[in-house]
Structures are given as C-alpha cells and as structure tokens.
Design brief:
There is one protein chain. With 299 residues, the protein is α+β, with helices and mostly antiparallel strands. The protein has a single domain (3-297), classed as paralog of FGE (formylglycine-generating enzyme). Helices cover 12% and strands 16% of the residues. The strands form 4 sheets. Strands 9-8-7-10 form a 4-stranded mixed β-sheet. Strands 1-4-11 form a 3-stranded antiparallel β-sheet, with no helix packed on it. A two-stranded antiparallel sheet has the order 2-3. The relative contact order is 0.21.
Length: 299
C-alpha cells in the first residue's frame, strides 16, 4: 500500500498505543465479570462511528445490499410467520406508559421496509442525518464496509481499551460521575424507559457524531448514541435478559459482542453506557440503535 493510500485509509482515525488494562467490572452486570488484565497491541480506530454519508459512499462504490434490504431465507427461520419474511428491520417505538420491562416486544417492532436508508421504515429518510451514525446494519454489513475500507471491526478488548481513553477503573469514559455539574456528556435516555424521555441531552434518537466531548484519546461517541459491533463472539458465565436490545431465546444464530450503549440506555433500566458494559447481539439483527466503527491494526 502506498503512503498516500495508507494516509487516506487512516484519515479521521486516532492512534491508540498498545498497553495493558483491567477489562470488565465487578460492580454492575454479571456478564462484565471477572475483571482481568488484558494486553492490547497498538492500533488505529475511527474517531467516530461510521456515518450515513460514509456508508452511502460504500454502497455507491460497490452496489452492496444490506441484510435488512433482502428477504430472509425461510430455511433460516422455520417458525416465522411467512408474512414477515420480507425485507425489513427492528424499529424502536416508545410506549404510551409504563410496561413490563422483561418483554422487549413492548417497544421493538419488526417494520417491513426499514433499512439504513429508511431507519424508521417507509416514509423516513436520511435527510439532515448525513453526520449521524448509520444504523439498521447487521454484523455482516459492518464487516463488509470494513473490508471495503481496508480496515477491520475491533475486538472487544480493543474497543474497551479505546473507550476508556486512558482512565483506569472509572465507571464512565470521563470519570465516575455520570453528569458532572448536571452536564450531559453522551446521548442516552433520561427518564423512565421506554415511555418518558426527558431529552436533557436534546436528542430523541441518534445525534450527529461529535455532539458531545471526546474521551481522553480524542474519540467521539464511545458512550451512547449507538451500540457498536465488535468482531468477538459473545460468551458469558452468567446470562440474563438483555436490556433495550432484542434478544433471542435460542442460540442457533451466533451472537457478537456490542459495546458502548445507545440513546435508548436509561439509568432506571439499562446502565450500559460504560466502557466495561457488553451485550451479545444476534449477528443477523439490524435495529435503529446499533452501528459500528473500524480499526486498522499495526503490521
């Protein structure tokens, strides 16, 4: 690769030197345990999640069609209603009032026609959202973009190391207090999920990348806004129902780790907008709150 090509590939990326850190947390959810020391080699990571404008360039250059834009194969979903085996994706829909938080179907709906181009379904567009993170992309879509860009999806340890921004053992990417002096430092849910969003951070859905301060490494949106795919398969000694992300009862479809929390994570329900937080997501899932960013590794 020429110096010019390499320079273009690393544009809008941040260099993170290798090192050792304590990964995980003992203080929140079981899947974050145990805390253990991990060594990470140096790498470059995107300054912010891949945006709609960036993903559009990829699609224009390659003609790529995302999973949500294709009808599911009935053989992969033998128990599904045939009427639902059409192109589409999951869309968050706030409820009118309090609901049973153990049942994610109360606020997630399968919407035919929903895709990265129309995140909330037919009639929705990306107008004014070029700088928002692309959503409605499953793991395969994220990996395809990364390969086209000459990059890769981060490993879970790389992602968490970068998200901490050099702060060892802190709850959040900026310290131990969520909103120091009342200042909102990330796009999350304020209020009672999934019906009352107080919008203290000014955003009901996704926000333009860079709307909140960077972490200690100069990285944007490592907290909230959208969950981000990693390339690691999800394993856990302790399992519990996921929070705001839909979960499957079976494991026929592999799950990868997603990190960072999203605009749907609320302190009363899903306190996963922390570097240590992790969740397993089915690789075929596309939703309005999952995106990704890429890395370039040394060597």
């Amino acid at each position: 690769m020429t110096t010019t090509a390499q320079g273009h590939r690393l544009k809008d990326m941040v260099r993170v030197d290798g090192g050792r850190f304590l990964m995980g947390s003992e203080d929140f959810y079981p899947e974050e345990r145990p805390v253990h020391e991990v060594a990470v080699d140096g790498f470059w990571i995107d300054r912010h999640p891949v945006t709609n404008a960036e993903f559009r360039r990829f699609v224009k250059a390659t003609g790529y069609v995302t999973v949500a834009e294709q009808a599911p194969d009935p053989a992969d979903y033998p128990d599904a209603d045939p009427a639902l085996l059409v192109p589409g994706a999951l869309v968050f829909q706030p409820t009118a009032g309090p609901v049973d938080l153990r049942e994610w179907r109360n606020w997630w709906a399968w919407v035919p026609g929903a895709s990265w181009r129309s995140p909330e379904g037919p009639g929705s567009t990306l107008h004014g959202r070029d700088r928002h993170p692309v959503v409605q992309v499953c793991h395969r879509d994220a990996a395809a973009y990364a390969e086209w860009a000459g990059k890769a999806l981060p490993g879970e340890a790389e992602w968490e190391y970068a998200a901490r921004g050099g702060l060892e053992g802190k709850v959040f990417a900026w310290g131990d207090e969520f909103a120091p002096k009342g200042r909102q430092l990330a796009n999350t849910w304020q209020g009672q999920f999934p019906w009352q969003n107080l919008l203290l951070d000014r955003y009901e859905r996704t926000s333009p990348v860079g709307s909140f301060p960077p972490n200690g490494y100069g990285l944007l949106d490592m907290t909230g806004n959208v969950w981000e795919w990693t390339d690691d398969l999800f394993t856990a000694d302790h399992r519990e129902p996921g929070c705001c992300a839909p979960q499957r009862s079976e494991e026929a479809i592999p799950r990868r780790v997603i990190k960072g929390g999203s605009h749907l994570c609320a302190p009363s329900y899903c306190l996963r907008y922390r570097p240590a937080a992790r969740q397993g997501e089915a690789v075929d899932t596309a939703t309005t709150h999952i995106g990704f960013r890429c890395v370039v590794r040394d060597g």
